[in-house]
Amino acid sequence: MFDPLDLYTPEDIADAPPDQVNLLLSSKDSESIHDSDFNDEDENLPIDSLDLPSVHYAPPEAILCILLLLKPTDQINFQHSKDSNLTTSQICLQKGISMELINATVKYYQTWGNKRLDTEKKICEKIPTLATIAETLLNYYTLILKHYEKTSNWIQDQIVKEASMRICENCGRTALPTMSRRFTFENFSRNIEIYEPSLTADNLGWKTWGSSFILSQKLIKIVPHFNPTKLHRVLELGSGTGLAGISWLMKWIEIHGNSNIEMFFTDLQEIVPNLRKNVEINGISDNSVVDTLDWTCPEDFVDKYSSEKFDIIIVSDPIYSPNHPKLVVDMISLFLSTNGICHLEIPLRDKYSKERNSLWELLEKNSLQVIEQENDQGMDDWGKVNYLYQRIEWKKK
After folding, report:
1. Pick from 139, 171, 203: which residue ends a domain?
2. Quick one: signal sequence residues (predicted)?
3. Taking the CB of the first residue and of the last residue of the chain, which one, N or C, has fewer CB atoms within 10 A?
């Protein structure tokens, strides 16, 4: 990923006179050189950033087409999907590219004799491969913004919007607008769809964290071992976007149907509306309670739903503040039934080692013990992360 502060120092190539454009561009990886300079003896050679259309010579339709082709594909398990089996028409439909745009792009490359990109198929298959060179493309995107900064029609407005989006997509999760993710799991036939609003006002509960994905896979394997003839009350603490709890409930319904399960998704008041939306998206609203549970004031929840304990408690990534260990242990102590099980997954962030140690000490002081522990490794938006899973129960008297 590139640093968004780089945006404040783009070279003013767009302001250069036309006879100097090619000279300036020859020193930048991000902008296409004059297309007559292409060496196309082998049209099967891989393309690079120099093959992108010249902002100064290409028609706006071609620029917009390229920006749409560089748009990331859907996210599956924190990684962008790769489907090499899509046809040209399917790619254009997926990326929102009209025939007008793709035809203008083909004509542009044919006019300048670029045989590597002179058909719809070549353009749709090869251009998206450049999305991996984000740092190189930054200057190309900023050049587009400067060239079209004084927009005058819908297509130029769209170009500015798409160029801005490509920059945001490479500046980290907090720069992104609303998004949807798709998750797939072993031993589970359905995909889980998760909607995430833009991360404003430091609402970290609007993001799906890697720990919930790791825990979801474990829960899906655990569910079949529970007795389907006995009623099970399940509570997810700090659900966030709800992935772990949704995984548990959807797997239960898949193998046991709708009976003998009471599922509670909980979080802070401002997180609950999006949590409820994700429960609805995945078609499990009729089997769920989605409501506020403030760990600093659980009495409101208890008054509303009784003090009956839960057989299963699900918690993922609950520690990102010094006061969280005590709150987590307080909630487990308050809601876990005598023979209940708490499934906890946390990332091993160096910055929070003190809080993790505090959590272990508080569990011990409150007669809770770790029955099973396992180190995991998984993905999050910024790459690989180490995690720790713990199965927690009451100490036997």
Report:
1. 171
2. none
3. C
Residues 153 and 201 in one domain: no
Judgement on whether residues 249 and 381 belong to the same structural domain of the protein: yes
Examine the domain organization and report whether 124 and 218 are in the same domain.
no
The whole-angstrom separation of Cα 148 and Cα 60 is 9
**pTM exceeds cut of 0.85:** no
Q: Is 56 left (phi over 0), alpha (psi -120 to 50) or beta?
A: alpha
Whether residues 166 and 224 share a domain: the answer is: no
Sheet holding 336-347, edge to edge: 288-292, 261-267, 232-237, 310-316, 336-347, 383-394, 368-380
By residue range, what is the domain housing residue 219?
179-394
Distance CA 211, CA 21 (A): 49
Burial 107-132 (b: 16+ CB within 10 A, else e): ebbeebebbbbbebebbbbebbebbe
Phi first, then psi, for residue 126 (nearest 5°) are -95, -40
pLDDT tens for the chain, 397 residues: list them.
Answer: 433 333 433 344 334 443 343 434 433 444 443 444 444 446 777 888 899 999 999 999 999 999 999 887 766 766 655 556 788 998 898 889 999 999 999 999 999 999 999 999 999 999 988 887 767 788 899 999 999 988 789 999 999 998 988 887 766 655 566 778 889 999 999 999 999 887 655 566 678 889 999 999 999 999 999 999 999 999 999 999 999 999 999 999 999 999 999 999 999 999 999 999 999 999 999 999 999 999 999 999 999 999 999 999 999 999 988 999 999 999 999 999 999 999 999 999 988 999 999 999 999 999 999 999 999 998 887 778 999 999 999 998 7
Distance CA 70, CA 163 (A): 10
CB distance 32 to 51 below 8 Å:
yes
Are 166 and 240 in the same domain? no
Task: Give the total number of structural domains in the chain.
Answer: 2
